[in-house]
Amino acid sequence: MQPLWKAAGVPNEDAACLAERLGLPTRVARWLLARNIVGEDEARRFLFAREAWTDPFDFLDMRGAVDRILAAVRDREQIVIVGDYDVDGVTASAILASELEARGAHWHCIIPERVADGYGLAPPLVERAHQLGGTLIVTVDNGIRAQAALEAAGKIDIDVIVTDHHEPVDELLTSAFAVVHYSRHADPERARALSGAGVAWKLTQAMQAVDPRRPGSTPAQFHEAWLMGLAALGAVSDMMPMRGENRRLVREGLMALRSCQRPGWLLLCERARVDVSKLSVSDISWRIGPRVNAAGRMAHAGTAFSLLMAEQRSQAADLADEIERLNVQRRQATERATQEAIAQVESIYGPSPDAVVACGEWPLGVVGIVAAKLVNHFGCPAIALAQMEDGLLRGSGRAPAGISLHSAVALCAPYLSHFGGHDAAIGCGLQMTHLADFRIAFARAVADLRAETRDVDAVSSENMIADDYLPLSEHGLELLDWAQRFAPFGPENEPLQLFVGPVEVRQATKLGNGSHLRLRLVEGGVEQDAVWFQVPPLAAARLESGLPQVCAFLVEIEENVWQGRRTAQLLVRRGWVLDAPVLRSRFAAVYRLLRQGVTGVQALLHALRDRGEVCAPQELAAILATFVELGFAAERDGAYHVIEGKKRDLRDAMTYQSLVREHLSPLDDAEWTGSGLGE
What are the residue boundaries of the RecJ OB domain, all occurrences included (predicted)? Predict the structure, then answer.
């Protein structure tokens, strides 16, 4: 039997024990255990923000890197930072540049132009650094595959320190002065969670530990808070795993950014219409990050870097206006390219592909966004390629959780001129003549990886709808406060999503422009409101018409503050209609008959029929199996007898969950023709 939620596999006694030890509701303990947070100490760290910082010197080359940089600062050498054009690369560049500036170093930052320079440190950039008088290059968010550039630097006596978080090649970077990367770390798996900005931040932490002296007018605590805030921006925007140290980094980094007074940062938030005092992860993901990215996607990322580094409001205002203009261009180009890519994929692959590759005359800067939108639309790994003037196709790929995109693309290496990245995102290039073969190879590679990782005996989390179910009677501020302790959310720590249902929809009221609904939900004697934004039109029409009345919803609990009053609000993400056999009234009728001494299956069917209840034999079998599973009844020689015991919710039974799953139909499913009317 396939459960509907992850917490279904949590033993009741384990949840009760953890809840008692930590003094928290049993339901919250279920959520922790369902996320494999099993130990008391681990749970305390997770809930009460006690994650430990890792030692920056766990990077095996860190001390050598720090000593070389500090020597360059002391000797007034020209240090050249080579960054990247996405948010992670721009913030990583700003982190190291801010630290060098605070130390009075001579530095220059080169961020490659996406089309002209391509990704990462390359021999032409080494030559540019040489022309600037550079004797030390420090890469941030790139360089782990830059063997050719390292060899070029060695020939002209430029030392190179590589700091990066992307997947390495098999060959060691023997020409680098130092390599600060998870592959050279005391605990590589733990270090993999850091973004490029996170690695750069660790580098500055190590510099401060070795030589805390920092001339300049900015107080140390404000400087260090700014660096942490930049690292948080990089981690969120690069969708790094939100576990362990990263959760603390993002949590405390957001706090630092909320009080930051740097003019570039404040104007960036102002243009994005973000209340900086209430800055959230979603603000970064949907408002701040896209604007920083827009500079590198549509023109040059140096504009975003200069904005973050700006110290005068007048200078920052011009840069913020330019980024806003580029962001408008980015949205328009992305919308056009996405529509074309979806149509192309449907034409080539059909409606339910396993992996897709789209190609078009699109700006190179938007193909990463297009790939992400293809993943959301089709639910599979996707690569979007832009046609370049030289006949080369260059692009980006994204993948849903559970698939290593880098591993899949590595299996297709013979068709590619270059590729790099990590599990969730890659960049690549190939000749147009190889496109057809690459499409076939990529689909085969994804299928092979799925086959290798599939455990036929395991319950697939992809088929689970929610983290847990939520009785409406438990919804309130106390549960909201506990749910907020699971934040910040991101990969490997997704927002808590809870199954509400079966519930009666008593009322559906339009909100705003009519595309949103406020739903009045009733479960037993409890009523609660839920809000559903951007309701699919067919679902909205059905709910407003009163058909169906009995539904189920996937919800998140969020805070709502109105006129100074704080409430817990249910935010609907998905909705289903449930057909009549799932109704609790049917279970109640059978239970009453059992208590009255009607114990045989045939006798129960006849008694239900006499009371006007139409119940198929297989439905009655599921009801009785649910009672046995929950300990409400026992079966002996074909007869069922009531057992008095502790009250439990029907939804705790796997049998009941399977029955609910069998009768779920999406509210926007045009093929649904059932009634789903009330009890």
Answer: 467-573
Angle at CA of residue 48, ends 45 and 50, nearest 5°: 45
Q: Give CA–CA dist 495/490, Å, rounded.
A: 7
> Omega before 548 cis (within 30°)?
yes
**Which pLDDT does position 630 carry in this prediction?**
92
Provide the residue ranges of all domains of the chain, joining segments of one domain with +.
11-45, 58-218, 352-453, 581-662
**Cα 345 to chain centroid, rounded:** 24
Helix (H, G, I), strand (E, B) or coil at 509: strand
| Per-residue pLDDT at 454 | 58
d(CA 296, CA 329): 12
State the CATH architecture for 581-662.
Answer: Orthogonal Bundle (1.10)
Q: What are the tokens at 480?
A: 């909201």
To which residue do tokens 């500090």 refer?
70
In the structure encoding, which two tokens stand for residue 360, read together? Answer: 């078009």
What pLDDT does residue 604 have? 93
pLDDT of residue 217: 59
Question: Is there a contact between 553 and 494 (Cβ–Cβ < 8 Å)?
Answer: no
Q: Is 609 exposed, middle or buried (0-12, 13-18, 19+ CB in 10 A)?
A: exposed
Identify residue 425 by its one-letter amino acid code. A
Residues 6+ apart with CB under 8 A from 230: 91, 92, 94, 95, 98, 197, 201, 253, 308
pTM over 0.90: no
- The Cα–Cα gap between 196 and 180 comes to 10
Segments in the chain below pLDDT 50 = 455-461, 675-679
Q: How many CB atoms lie within 10 A of CB 313?
A: 13
Structure tokens at 610: 């006499």
Domain 352-453: which CATH number of 3.30.1950.10, 3.10.290.10, 3.40.50.2300, 3.10.310.30: 3.10.310.30
Answer whether 161's CB lies under 8 Å from 180's CB. yes
Cα-trace Rg, the chain? 28
pLDDT of amino acid 97: 98
How far is 354 from 674, CA to CA, in rounded Å? 31
Q: Does the domain made of 58-218 have the CATH classification 3.10.450.50? A: no
CB burial of 516-528 (b: ≥16 within 10 Å; e: otherwise) equals: bbebebbbeeeeb
Handedness of CA 65, 67, 68, 73 (dihedral sign): positive
Q: 173 burial class (0-12, 13-18, 19+ CB within 10 angstroms)?
A: buried
